[in-house]
Every structure is written in structure tokens, then in C-alpha cells.
Amino acid sequence: VCSSDLKHPGVERCDLVDIDGAVIEQSKKYFPQIAVSFQHPKANATVGDGLAFVATKTEEYDVIIVDSSDPEGPASVLFGAEFYNNVKRALKPQGIVCSQGECIWLHKPIIERMTNFLKKDIQFDNVKYGMIYIPSYPCGSIGCLVATKGFEQITTPLNPIENTDFAKDLKYYDTAVHNAAFALPRFAAELNK
């Protein structure tokens, strides 16, 4: 995540928290082209509990990306009220959180539950589910749950990627793909209403 975030010159700081330090070390060993971001002066890697980390933050982040394990099992605390209330508090006004959102083809009940939870219990201003196509995931897709604090816009980029210096190097993402991610199949369209 850091390697992509740090491509944006406006990023002032990128904090990565992983509960397992071996994940960071193995990333350096087996994915050096991505793990090079750990050496970036704006990158801060912390080995620790994400729940505890975010509990200490107040209006520090414009964006929080939660690339966690599945919502059932050891990472379930990263899908609960305590965590998301802390995430909301950690976001600056106009902040946005993007979380791992499971596959709509396999986990629609979980996604419905999380979407309603973020809207009704945590009371984010806007919550949307986006589909991302990645062949290595079951059914060829994974999703993201995007929630905002203080503004409504999610489905169209505020800063189109085509205006960046690195847009020509991207192989997947552009404004059209961003917009399309939130156009869901009919059986799931209710999630984004």
C-alpha cells in the first residue's frame, strides 16, 4: 500500500501498521520492488496492533487504508465498532477510509452487514462498495468499502489520476476504472443506494 501511496507528491506521511513483523521482512525479501517504499523518508512502518495504533490518533489522517485479513477470525476486531469509531476519530474533517471489502460473489451478506454498520452505527456520511478485478482472488474479484467523513463524493475521483506524473506507468487504474468499480451488478446495486 505504501508504495502506491507514496507516488503521490502531496502525501506528507505514510504510516503502515502490521501486527506481524515477519510480513514486513518477508515483503522486503520476496517483493523488493514494492518493499523499497519502507526506505522512503515519508514511510513509517510499525509492528503492532492496528486497533491499538488507531486508538491513539485524533484527526491526523486524510486517508486511512485498511488492508486487513478476513472479517471472521483473528482480524475480526478490525471490523468492529471500537476500531471504526477510532478510525472515524483519526480521520481529519473531509477524511476517507477504504477497507478490504470481500468478494460480492461469495460474501454478499457480510458486505451488506458491513455497509449498514458503517452507515448506521458508525455514521459515516457516505459508504460505497467498489468491485476490483484481480484474477488471483476467488471469483476474480475483491471489493473495497469506502466511507467518508464530512463529504459525499466517492464514485468519481476528486483528483483524476490522469493528471499525475506517474499515470503513464499505471497498468490498471484510471478514472474510468474508478467510476466503474461502483457500478454494481443488479443483485448488489442496492448496496450503493
Poorly predicted segments: none
Largest sheet properties: 4 strands, mixed
Helical element count?
A: 7
Q: Could you say which overall geometry the principal axes of the C-alpha atoms support?
A: globular
Rg, Å, rounded = 16 Å
Overall mean pLDDT score? 92
Give an overview of the whole structure:
With 193 residues, this protein is an alpha/beta fold. It is 28% helix and 22% strand. The chain contains seven helices and six strands; from the N terminus they run H-E-H-H-E-H-E-H-E-H-E-E-H. The strands form two sheets. A four-stranded mixed β-sheet has the order 3-4-6-5, with helices on both faces. Helix 5 (81-90) links the parallel strand 3 and strand 4 (91-100). The longest helix has 14 residues, at 108-121. The radius of gyration is 16 Å and the shape is globular.
List the SSEs and their pairings.
Blueprint: H1 2-5, E1 14-18, H2 21-30, H3 32-35, E2 43-47, H4 50-55, E3 61-66, H5 81-90, E4 91-100, H6 108-121, E5 126-133, E6 141-149, H7 175-181
Parallel strand pairs: 1-2, 3-4
Antiparallel strand pairs: 4-6, 5-6
Provide a compact summary of the structure.
This protein has 193 residues and is α/β, with parallel strands linked by helices.
Essential attributes:
single chain; four-stranded mixed sheet; 7 helices; two-stranded parallel sheet; alpha/beta; about 30% helix; about 190 residues
